[in-house]
Amino acid sequence: MKESLDFIYKEQKELGKFGGIASLLGWDQMTYMPSAGGEERSDQLSLISRLAHERVISDDFYHHITRLNEQHTYETLGKKDQMVVKRLLDDVEKSRKIPSSFVEKMSKTTTLAYMAWQEAKTQNKYKHFAPHLEKVIGLQREYCDYMRLPGHPYNSLLDDYEEGMTVAKLQTEFSFLKPKLVELLQKITASKRYEKQQELSIKADKIKQQEISMFLFQKLGLTHDKTRLDESAHPFTTTIGDDDVRITTNYNHDNPLFSFFSTVHEAGHALYELGLPQNELKDTVLSDTPSLGLHESQSRFWENMIGRSEPFWSYFYPVFKKTYPDELRLMDPITWYRFINQVKPSLIRVEADELTYCLHVILRFELELLLIEGKVTVTELPSVWNQKMNEYLSVVPQTDQEGVLQDMHWSGGDFGYFPTYAIGTIYAAQLYYQLTKEHPKITNEIGWGEFSTTLQWLRTHIHCHGRTLTADEIIKNTCGEGLNANVFVTYLKDKYYQLYDLS
Predict the structure, then answer these.
(1) Beta carbons of 428 and 301 less than 8 angstroms apart
(2) With contact defined as beta carbons under 8 Å apart, do 442 and 436 qualify?
(3) Which of 84, 187, 206, 437 could form a disulfide with 251 if both were Cys (CB 3.0 to 4.6 A apart)?
(4) Residue 167 and residue 150 in contact, taking contact as beta carbons nearer than 8 Å
Protein backbone atom coordinates (compact mmCIF):
# COMPACT_ATOMS: atom_id res chain seq x y z
CA MET A 1 0.00 0.00 0.00
CA LYS A 2 2.80 2.41 0.88
CA GLU A 3 4.47 1.75 -2.45
CA SER A 4 1.30 2.65 -4.32
CA LEU A 5 0.67 5.77 -2.24
CA ASP A 6 4.25 6.97 -2.77
CA PHE A 7 3.90 6.35 -6.49
CA ILE A 8 0.63 8.23 -7.01
CA TYR A 9 1.81 11.23 -4.99
CA LYS A 10 5.10 11.39 -6.91
CA GLU A 11 3.20 11.21 -10.21
CA GLN A 12 0.76 13.96 -9.19
CA LYS A 13 3.64 16.25 -8.25
CA GLU A 14 5.48 15.66 -11.51
CA LEU A 15 2.32 16.01 -13.60
CA GLY A 16 1.78 19.34 -11.89
CA LYS A 17 5.21 20.41 -13.11
CA PHE A 18 4.30 19.39 -16.65
CA GLY A 19 1.20 21.58 -16.34
CA GLY A 20 3.29 24.49 -15.11
CA ILE A 21 5.70 24.15 -18.04
CA ALA A 22 2.82 24.11 -20.53
CA SER A 23 1.25 27.13 -18.84
CA LEU A 24 4.52 29.05 -19.01
CA LEU A 25 4.90 28.27 -22.72
CA GLY A 26 1.30 29.37 -23.33
CA TRP A 27 1.71 32.55 -21.29
CA ASP A 28 4.86 33.46 -23.22
CA GLN A 29 3.11 32.79 -26.53
CA MET A 30 0.36 35.26 -25.67
CA THR A 31 2.62 37.96 -24.20
CA TYR A 32 6.24 38.19 -25.33
CA MET A 33 7.00 35.47 -27.87
CA PRO A 34 8.20 36.74 -31.28
CA SER A 35 5.52 36.05 -33.90
CA ALA A 36 7.89 33.89 -35.96
CA GLY A 37 8.24 31.47 -33.05
CA GLY A 38 4.71 30.14 -33.37
CA GLU A 39 5.43 27.03 -35.42
CA GLU A 40 8.11 25.74 -33.07
CA ARG A 41 6.02 26.71 -30.03
CA SER A 42 3.19 24.54 -31.34
CA ASP A 43 5.63 21.61 -31.49
CA GLN A 44 6.85 22.31 -27.95
CA LEU A 45 3.34 22.50 -26.53
CA SER A 46 2.16 19.40 -28.37
CA LEU A 47 5.17 17.46 -27.05
CA ILE A 48 4.53 18.53 -23.45
CA SER A 49 0.84 17.69 -23.82
CA ARG A 50 1.61 14.22 -25.22
CA LEU A 51 4.20 13.42 -22.57
CA ALA A 52 1.90 14.52 -19.74
CA HIS A 53 -1.03 12.59 -21.16
CA GLU A 54 1.07 9.44 -21.51
CA ARG A 55 2.03 9.73 -17.83
CA VAL A 56 -1.62 10.14 -16.83
CA ILE A 57 -2.85 7.12 -18.80
CA SER A 58 0.14 4.85 -18.09
CA ASP A 59 -0.65 1.33 -16.94
CA ASP A 60 1.61 1.74 -13.90
CA PHE A 61 -0.27 4.82 -12.67
CA TYR A 62 -3.64 3.18 -13.28
CA HIS A 63 -2.53 -0.04 -11.59
CA HIS A 64 -1.49 1.74 -8.38
CA ILE A 65 -4.71 3.79 -8.28
CA THR A 66 -6.99 0.78 -8.81
CA ARG A 67 -4.97 -1.20 -6.28
CA LEU A 68 -5.59 1.50 -3.68
CA ASN A 69 -9.24 1.64 -4.65
CA GLU A 70 -9.83 -2.02 -3.83
CA GLN A 71 -12.23 -2.18 -0.91
CA HIS A 72 -10.00 -3.94 1.60
CA THR A 73 -7.20 -1.43 0.92
CA TYR A 74 -9.34 1.68 0.47
CA GLU A 75 -10.98 1.26 3.87
CA THR A 76 -7.60 1.39 5.61
CA LEU A 77 -6.63 4.71 3.96
CA GLY A 78 -6.85 8.06 5.71
CA LYS A 79 -9.56 10.51 4.65
CA LYS A 80 -7.20 12.61 2.49
CA ASP A 81 -5.80 9.54 0.72
CA GLN A 82 -9.31 8.27 0.05
CA MET A 83 -10.36 11.58 -1.54
CA VAL A 84 -7.21 11.67 -3.66
CA VAL A 85 -7.69 8.09 -4.87
CA LYS A 86 -11.34 8.61 -5.79
CA ARG A 87 -10.66 11.85 -7.65
CA LEU A 88 -7.62 10.41 -9.42
CA LEU A 89 -9.53 7.31 -10.48
CA ASP A 90 -12.28 9.41 -12.07
CA ASP A 91 -9.77 11.68 -13.84
CA VAL A 92 -7.51 8.90 -15.08
CA GLU A 93 -10.33 6.71 -16.35
CA LYS A 94 -11.61 9.69 -18.28
CA SER A 95 -8.16 10.45 -19.70
CA ARG A 96 -7.57 6.81 -20.67
CA LYS A 97 -10.39 7.13 -23.17
CA ILE A 98 -8.27 9.59 -25.17
CA PRO A 99 -5.30 8.40 -27.29
CA SER A 100 -2.03 10.28 -26.84
CA SER A 101 -1.91 10.85 -30.60
CA PHE A 102 -5.20 12.73 -30.36
CA VAL A 103 -3.92 14.93 -27.51
CA GLU A 104 -0.80 15.80 -29.50
CA LYS A 105 -2.86 16.52 -32.61
CA MET A 106 -5.30 18.71 -30.66
CA SER A 107 -2.47 20.72 -29.09
CA LYS A 108 -0.73 21.35 -32.40
CA THR A 109 -3.99 22.18 -34.20
CA THR A 110 -5.15 24.66 -31.57
CA THR A 111 -1.75 26.35 -31.29
CA LEU A 112 -1.78 27.01 -35.05
CA ALA A 113 -5.46 27.95 -34.90
CA TYR A 114 -4.76 30.57 -32.23
CA MET A 115 -2.10 32.16 -34.45
CA ALA A 116 -4.51 32.12 -37.40
CA TRP A 117 -7.22 33.69 -35.24
CA GLN A 118 -4.87 36.49 -34.18
CA GLU A 119 -4.06 37.27 -37.80
CA ALA A 120 -7.66 36.95 -38.95
CA LYS A 121 -8.92 39.25 -36.22
CA THR A 122 -6.24 41.86 -36.89
CA GLN A 123 -6.94 41.84 -40.62
CA ASN A 124 -10.71 41.30 -40.27
CA LYS A 125 -10.54 38.25 -42.53
CA TYR A 126 -12.65 35.39 -41.21
CA LYS A 127 -11.71 33.23 -44.20
CA HIS A 128 -8.15 32.98 -42.83
CA PHE A 129 -9.43 31.43 -39.62
CA ALA A 130 -12.29 29.34 -41.03
CA PRO A 131 -10.22 26.32 -42.17
CA HIS A 132 -8.58 26.11 -38.75
CA LEU A 133 -11.95 26.35 -36.99
CA GLU A 134 -13.23 23.55 -39.21
CA LYS A 135 -10.39 21.32 -38.00
CA VAL A 136 -10.98 22.26 -34.37
CA ILE A 137 -14.70 21.43 -34.58
CA GLY A 138 -13.88 18.10 -36.20
CA LEU A 139 -11.57 17.30 -33.30
CA GLN A 140 -14.26 18.35 -30.79
CA ARG A 141 -16.68 15.86 -32.35
CA GLU A 142 -13.98 13.20 -32.29
CA TYR A 143 -13.41 13.94 -28.60
CA CYS A 144 -17.14 13.51 -27.91
CA ASP A 145 -16.99 10.12 -29.64
CA TYR A 146 -14.19 9.05 -27.31
CA MET A 147 -15.92 10.27 -24.13
CA ARG A 148 -19.54 9.30 -24.91
CA LEU A 149 -21.15 10.72 -21.77
CA PRO A 150 -24.91 10.10 -21.57
CA GLY A 151 -27.23 12.50 -23.37
CA HIS A 152 -26.19 15.18 -25.84
CA PRO A 153 -22.65 14.83 -27.29
CA TYR A 154 -21.91 18.36 -26.03
CA ASN A 155 -22.19 17.00 -22.46
CA SER A 156 -18.73 15.48 -22.96
CA LEU A 157 -17.28 18.93 -23.68
CA LEU A 158 -19.23 20.71 -20.97
CA ASP A 159 -18.23 18.21 -18.29
CA ASP A 160 -14.54 19.08 -18.73
CA TYR A 161 -15.24 22.59 -17.47
CA GLU A 162 -18.32 22.10 -15.28
CA GLU A 163 -18.41 18.62 -13.81
CA GLY A 164 -21.91 17.16 -13.74
CA MET A 165 -23.47 19.92 -15.83
CA THR A 166 -25.52 18.87 -18.86
CA VAL A 167 -27.13 20.48 -21.89
CA ALA A 168 -30.56 19.71 -20.43
CA LYS A 169 -29.76 21.47 -17.13
CA LEU A 170 -28.29 24.50 -18.90
CA GLN A 171 -31.17 24.82 -21.32
CA THR A 172 -33.59 24.80 -18.39
CA GLU A 173 -31.63 27.51 -16.56
CA PHE A 174 -31.06 29.62 -19.68
CA SER A 175 -34.67 29.29 -20.84
CA PHE A 176 -35.60 31.04 -17.59
CA LEU A 177 -32.80 33.59 -17.65
CA LYS A 178 -32.83 34.71 -21.29
CA PRO A 179 -36.40 36.08 -21.43
CA LYS A 180 -35.95 37.76 -18.04
CA LEU A 181 -32.86 39.58 -19.31
CA VAL A 182 -34.55 40.58 -22.56
CA GLU A 183 -37.59 41.85 -20.66
CA LEU A 184 -35.50 43.93 -18.26
CA LEU A 185 -33.42 45.25 -21.15
CA GLN A 186 -36.56 46.35 -22.99
CA LYS A 187 -37.85 48.14 -19.90
CA ILE A 188 -34.58 49.99 -19.51
CA THR A 189 -34.25 50.99 -23.16
CA ALA A 190 -37.81 52.33 -23.05
CA SER A 191 -37.14 54.48 -19.96
CA LYS A 192 -36.66 58.24 -19.96
CA ARG A 193 -33.31 57.96 -18.22
CA TYR A 194 -32.04 55.64 -20.94
CA GLU A 195 -33.06 58.18 -23.60
CA LYS A 196 -31.06 60.86 -21.80
CA GLN A 197 -27.93 58.86 -21.00
CA GLN A 198 -24.82 60.06 -22.77
CA GLU A 199 -21.52 58.40 -23.47
CA LEU A 200 -18.53 59.75 -21.63
CA SER A 201 -15.47 59.86 -23.81
CA ILE A 202 -12.28 59.21 -21.87
CA LYS A 203 -9.11 58.69 -23.81
CA ALA A 204 -6.14 57.72 -21.72
CA ASP A 205 -2.60 56.92 -22.66
CA LYS A 206 -1.10 53.56 -21.83
CA ILE A 207 1.06 54.86 -18.99
CA LYS A 208 -1.94 56.18 -17.03
CA GLN A 209 -3.85 52.95 -17.58
CA GLN A 210 -0.88 50.93 -16.36
CA GLU A 211 -0.54 53.09 -13.25
CA ILE A 212 -4.15 52.71 -12.17
CA SER A 213 -4.22 48.99 -13.02
CA MET A 214 -1.15 48.45 -10.86
CA PHE A 215 -2.71 50.40 -7.99
CA LEU A 216 -5.81 48.25 -8.30
CA PHE A 217 -3.68 45.09 -8.53
CA GLN A 218 -2.12 45.85 -5.15
CA LYS A 219 -5.28 47.19 -3.50
CA LEU A 220 -7.18 43.97 -4.13
CA GLY A 221 -4.50 41.96 -2.34
CA LEU A 222 -2.15 40.73 -5.08
CA THR A 223 1.59 40.92 -4.44
CA HIS A 224 4.55 41.08 -6.83
CA ASP A 225 6.33 38.16 -5.20
CA LYS A 226 3.59 35.79 -6.37
CA THR A 227 1.84 37.56 -9.24
CA ARG A 228 2.60 39.49 -12.44
CA LEU A 229 0.48 41.90 -14.46
CA ASP A 230 1.32 41.97 -18.16
CA GLU A 231 -0.41 42.78 -21.44
CA SER A 232 -2.01 40.50 -24.03
CA ALA A 233 -4.52 40.75 -26.86
CA HIS A 234 -7.12 38.97 -24.73
CA PRO A 235 -6.84 39.30 -20.91
CA PHE A 236 -6.29 35.99 -19.12
CA THR A 237 -4.96 34.34 -15.97
CA THR A 238 -2.64 31.34 -15.84
CA THR A 239 -0.91 29.46 -13.04
CA ILE A 240 2.73 28.45 -13.46
CA GLY A 241 3.18 27.22 -9.88
CA ASP A 242 1.66 27.48 -6.42
CA ASP A 243 3.27 30.88 -5.88
CA ASP A 244 3.44 32.03 -9.51
CA VAL A 245 0.14 33.22 -10.96
CA ARG A 246 0.21 35.51 -14.01
CA ILE A 247 -2.57 37.87 -15.11
CA THR A 248 -2.83 40.12 -18.15
CA THR A 249 -4.93 43.05 -19.29
CA ASN A 250 -5.13 45.13 -22.46
CA TYR A 251 -4.39 48.86 -22.73
CA ASN A 252 -5.18 49.38 -26.41
CA HIS A 253 -8.74 50.55 -25.91
CA ASP A 254 -9.35 54.28 -25.83
CA ASN A 255 -11.57 53.88 -22.78
CA PRO A 256 -9.43 53.09 -19.71
CA LEU A 257 -12.37 51.32 -18.09
CA PHE A 258 -11.63 48.31 -20.29
CA SER A 259 -8.19 47.71 -18.79
CA PHE A 260 -9.52 48.66 -15.34
CA PHE A 261 -12.32 46.09 -15.27
CA SER A 262 -10.20 43.49 -17.06
CA THR A 263 -7.67 43.84 -14.27
CA VAL A 264 -10.37 43.47 -11.60
CA HIS A 265 -11.75 40.41 -13.39
CA GLU A 266 -8.40 38.66 -13.75
CA ALA A 267 -7.44 39.60 -10.19
CA GLY A 268 -10.48 37.63 -9.02
CA HIS A 269 -9.15 34.57 -10.83
CA ALA A 270 -5.66 35.06 -9.40
CA LEU A 271 -6.92 35.48 -5.82
CA TYR A 272 -8.75 32.18 -6.15
CA GLU A 273 -5.66 30.39 -7.51
CA LEU A 274 -3.53 31.75 -4.68
CA GLY A 275 -6.17 30.72 -2.13
CA LEU A 276 -6.41 27.06 -3.13
CA PRO A 277 -5.34 24.59 -0.41
CA GLN A 278 -1.57 24.22 -0.14
CA ASN A 279 -1.14 22.40 3.17
CA GLU A 280 -1.42 18.61 3.10
CA LEU A 281 -3.23 18.82 -0.25
CA LYS A 282 -0.30 20.56 -1.97
CA ASP A 283 0.76 18.88 -5.24
CA THR A 284 -2.36 16.73 -5.31
CA VAL A 285 -5.35 16.59 -7.60
CA LEU A 286 -7.42 18.15 -4.80
CA SER A 287 -5.51 21.44 -4.79
CA ASP A 288 -7.40 22.73 -7.78
CA THR A 289 -10.75 24.30 -8.63
CA PRO A 290 -13.72 21.93 -9.05
CA SER A 291 -15.18 23.85 -11.99
CA LEU A 292 -14.59 26.83 -14.24
CA GLY A 293 -18.04 28.12 -13.33
CA LEU A 294 -16.91 28.44 -9.72
CA HIS A 295 -13.64 30.00 -10.93
CA GLU A 296 -15.60 32.46 -13.04
CA SER A 297 -17.79 33.29 -10.04
CA GLN A 298 -14.71 34.74 -8.37
CA SER A 299 -13.79 37.02 -11.28
CA ARG A 300 -17.40 38.11 -11.89
CA PHE A 301 -17.90 38.66 -8.17
CA TRP A 302 -14.97 41.09 -7.98
CA GLU A 303 -15.65 42.70 -11.35
CA ASN A 304 -19.39 43.28 -10.94
CA MET A 305 -20.71 42.80 -7.43
CA ILE A 306 -17.74 44.67 -5.96
CA GLY A 307 -16.17 46.64 -8.84
CA ARG A 308 -19.40 48.11 -10.18
CA SER A 309 -21.00 48.77 -6.81
CA GLU A 310 -21.72 52.20 -5.38
CA PRO A 311 -19.58 51.63 -2.23
CA PHE A 312 -16.58 50.61 -4.35
CA TRP A 313 -16.73 53.83 -6.33
CA SER A 314 -17.19 56.00 -3.28
CA TYR A 315 -13.58 54.98 -2.58
CA PHE A 316 -12.19 54.60 -6.09
CA TYR A 317 -13.77 57.63 -7.76
CA PRO A 318 -11.34 60.11 -6.15
CA VAL A 319 -8.46 57.86 -7.24
CA PHE A 320 -9.79 57.74 -10.77
CA LYS A 321 -10.42 61.48 -10.87
CA LYS A 322 -6.90 62.18 -9.69
CA THR A 323 -5.59 60.12 -12.60
CA TYR A 324 -7.97 61.68 -15.15
CA PRO A 325 -8.68 65.18 -13.76
CA ASP A 326 -9.49 66.83 -17.10
CA GLU A 327 -11.83 64.13 -18.33
CA LEU A 328 -13.80 63.99 -15.04
CA ARG A 329 -13.73 67.65 -14.01
CA LEU A 330 -17.51 68.03 -14.49
CA MET A 331 -18.41 64.61 -13.08
CA ASP A 332 -19.70 63.92 -9.54
CA PRO A 333 -19.55 60.48 -7.84
CA ILE A 334 -23.24 59.63 -8.33
CA THR A 335 -23.19 60.54 -12.01
CA TRP A 336 -20.01 58.50 -12.39
CA TYR A 337 -21.63 55.49 -10.69
CA ARG A 338 -24.53 55.69 -13.13
CA PHE A 339 -22.08 55.90 -16.01
CA ILE A 340 -20.14 52.87 -14.79
CA ASN A 341 -23.38 50.90 -14.82
CA GLN A 342 -24.91 52.19 -18.04
CA VAL A 343 -26.88 49.58 -19.92
CA LYS A 344 -26.21 49.73 -23.62
CA PRO A 345 -26.44 46.72 -25.94
CA SER A 346 -23.01 46.28 -27.51
CA LEU A 347 -21.29 44.07 -30.04
CA ILE A 348 -18.35 42.94 -27.92
CA ARG A 349 -18.82 40.43 -25.09
CA VAL A 350 -15.91 41.63 -22.95
CA GLU A 351 -17.21 45.21 -23.20
CA ALA A 352 -20.82 44.27 -22.41
CA ASP A 353 -22.61 45.77 -19.45
CA GLU A 354 -23.55 43.65 -16.47
CA LEU A 355 -27.13 43.13 -17.65
CA THR A 356 -26.54 42.10 -21.27
CA TYR A 357 -23.37 40.07 -20.72
CA CYS A 358 -25.13 36.75 -20.21
CA LEU A 359 -27.05 37.20 -23.47
CA HIS A 360 -23.69 37.17 -25.25
CA VAL A 361 -22.82 33.95 -23.42
CA ILE A 362 -26.13 32.23 -24.15
CA LEU A 363 -25.72 33.12 -27.82
CA ARG A 364 -22.32 31.38 -27.93
CA PHE A 365 -23.67 28.34 -26.10
CA GLU A 366 -26.45 28.00 -28.66
CA LEU A 367 -24.00 28.36 -31.55
CA GLU A 368 -21.67 25.75 -30.10
CA LEU A 369 -24.53 23.27 -29.92
CA LEU A 370 -25.43 23.97 -33.55
CA LEU A 371 -21.81 23.56 -34.68
CA ILE A 372 -21.32 20.27 -32.81
CA GLU A 373 -24.66 18.99 -34.13
CA GLY A 374 -23.69 20.01 -37.66
CA LYS A 375 -26.77 22.18 -38.03
CA VAL A 376 -24.62 25.25 -38.78
CA THR A 377 -21.46 25.14 -40.89
CA VAL A 378 -18.30 27.18 -40.37
CA THR A 379 -19.16 29.11 -43.52
CA GLU A 380 -22.65 29.94 -42.21
CA LEU A 381 -21.44 30.84 -38.72
CA PRO A 382 -20.90 34.62 -39.20
CA SER A 383 -24.40 35.17 -40.60
CA VAL A 384 -26.08 33.06 -37.89
CA TRP A 385 -24.04 34.94 -35.28
CA ASN A 386 -25.31 38.26 -36.65
CA GLN A 387 -28.92 37.04 -36.74
CA LYS A 388 -28.84 36.05 -33.08
CA MET A 389 -27.16 39.33 -32.07
CA ASN A 390 -30.00 41.20 -33.75
CA GLU A 391 -32.62 38.99 -32.09
CA TYR A 392 -31.24 39.22 -28.53
CA LEU A 393 -29.57 42.64 -28.42
CA SER A 394 -30.89 44.53 -31.46
CA VAL A 395 -27.35 45.24 -32.66
CA VAL A 396 -25.66 43.75 -35.72
CA PRO A 397 -21.89 43.50 -36.33
CA GLN A 398 -20.71 45.28 -39.44
CA THR A 399 -17.47 43.28 -39.54
CA ASP A 400 -16.40 39.81 -38.44
CA GLN A 401 -13.78 41.46 -36.24
CA GLU A 402 -16.55 42.82 -34.02
CA GLY A 403 -18.60 39.67 -34.51
CA VAL A 404 -17.57 36.05 -34.82
CA LEU A 405 -13.81 36.75 -34.55
CA GLN A 406 -13.89 38.66 -31.26
CA ASP A 407 -13.13 35.73 -28.89
CA MET A 408 -10.05 33.51 -28.85
CA HIS A 409 -11.79 30.54 -27.17
CA TRP A 410 -12.71 28.51 -30.26
CA SER A 411 -9.18 28.79 -31.61
CA GLY A 412 -8.02 27.03 -28.44
CA GLY A 413 -10.62 24.28 -28.74
CA ASP A 414 -12.47 25.54 -25.70
CA PHE A 415 -15.95 24.36 -26.66
CA GLY A 416 -18.05 24.06 -23.51
CA TYR A 417 -16.17 26.92 -21.83
CA PHE A 418 -18.52 29.82 -22.61
CA PRO A 419 -21.47 28.58 -20.49
CA THR A 420 -19.25 28.78 -17.41
CA TYR A 421 -19.28 32.59 -17.70
CA ALA A 422 -23.03 32.62 -17.15
CA ILE A 423 -22.87 29.92 -14.47
CA GLY A 424 -20.18 31.94 -12.70
CA THR A 425 -22.19 35.15 -12.97
CA ILE A 426 -25.19 33.46 -11.34
CA TYR A 427 -22.99 31.97 -8.61
CA ALA A 428 -21.43 35.41 -8.01
CA ALA A 429 -24.85 36.95 -7.32
CA GLN A 430 -25.65 34.14 -4.89
CA LEU A 431 -22.34 34.60 -3.10
CA TYR A 432 -22.75 38.36 -2.84
CA TYR A 433 -26.24 37.94 -1.40
CA GLN A 434 -24.90 35.52 1.21
CA LEU A 435 -21.90 37.73 2.05
CA THR A 436 -24.09 40.78 2.72
CA LYS A 437 -26.47 38.62 4.74
CA GLU A 438 -23.67 37.36 6.99
CA HIS A 439 -21.83 40.71 7.09
CA PRO A 440 -24.47 43.48 6.93
CA LYS A 441 -21.80 46.19 7.24
CA ILE A 442 -19.55 44.85 4.50
CA THR A 443 -20.55 47.67 2.13
CA ASN A 444 -19.09 50.15 4.63
CA GLU A 445 -15.72 48.39 4.47
CA ILE A 446 -15.83 48.32 0.66
CA GLY A 447 -16.55 52.05 0.73
CA TRP A 448 -13.36 52.56 2.74
CA GLY A 449 -11.34 50.60 0.18
CA GLU A 450 -10.98 47.73 2.64
CA PHE A 451 -11.41 44.28 1.05
CA SER A 452 -9.79 41.95 3.57
CA THR A 453 -13.07 40.76 5.14
CA THR A 454 -14.52 40.03 1.72
CA LEU A 455 -11.42 38.13 0.61
CA GLN A 456 -11.24 36.16 3.85
CA TRP A 457 -14.92 35.19 3.50
CA LEU A 458 -14.22 33.84 0.00
CA ARG A 459 -11.08 32.08 1.26
CA THR A 460 -13.10 30.35 3.99
CA HIS A 461 -16.20 29.47 1.98
CA ILE A 462 -14.85 28.86 -1.53
CA HIS A 463 -11.08 28.83 -2.03
CA CYS A 464 -10.01 26.49 0.78
CA HIS A 465 -12.04 23.52 -0.45
CA GLY A 466 -10.20 23.00 -3.71
CA ARG A 467 -11.62 19.86 -5.33
CA THR A 468 -12.52 18.15 -2.07
CA LEU A 469 -16.10 19.14 -2.92
CA THR A 470 -17.91 19.75 -6.20
CA ALA A 471 -18.88 23.27 -7.21
CA ASP A 472 -22.51 22.42 -6.56
CA GLU A 473 -21.70 21.19 -3.05
CA ILE A 474 -19.65 24.30 -2.27
CA ILE A 475 -22.43 26.64 -3.40
CA LYS A 476 -25.08 24.65 -1.54
CA ASN A 477 -23.00 24.65 1.65
CA THR A 478 -22.36 28.39 1.36
CA CYS A 479 -25.67 29.69 0.02
CA GLY A 480 -28.14 27.01 1.06
CA GLU A 481 -28.99 26.06 -2.53
CA GLY A 482 -27.38 25.23 -5.85
CA LEU A 483 -27.37 27.23 -9.09
CA ASN A 484 -30.31 29.65 -9.03
CA ALA A 485 -30.63 32.21 -11.83
CA ASN A 486 -33.53 33.87 -10.01
CA VAL A 487 -31.10 35.29 -7.42
CA PHE A 488 -29.16 36.95 -10.24
CA VAL A 489 -32.36 38.34 -11.77
CA THR A 490 -33.40 39.74 -8.37
CA TYR A 491 -29.97 41.34 -7.97
CA LEU A 492 -30.28 42.99 -11.39
CA LYS A 493 -33.79 44.28 -10.71
CA ASP A 494 -32.83 45.71 -7.31
CA LYS A 495 -29.91 47.55 -8.87
CA TYR A 496 -31.18 48.64 -12.27
CA TYR A 497 -34.74 49.57 -11.33
CA GLN A 498 -33.15 52.18 -9.07
CA LEU A 499 -30.60 53.29 -11.67
CA TYR A 500 -33.23 53.77 -14.37
CA ASP A 501 -36.14 54.92 -12.17
CA LEU A 502 -38.26 51.88 -13.02
CA SER A 503 -41.14 50.61 -11.00
Answers:
(1) yes
(2) yes
(3) 206
(4) no
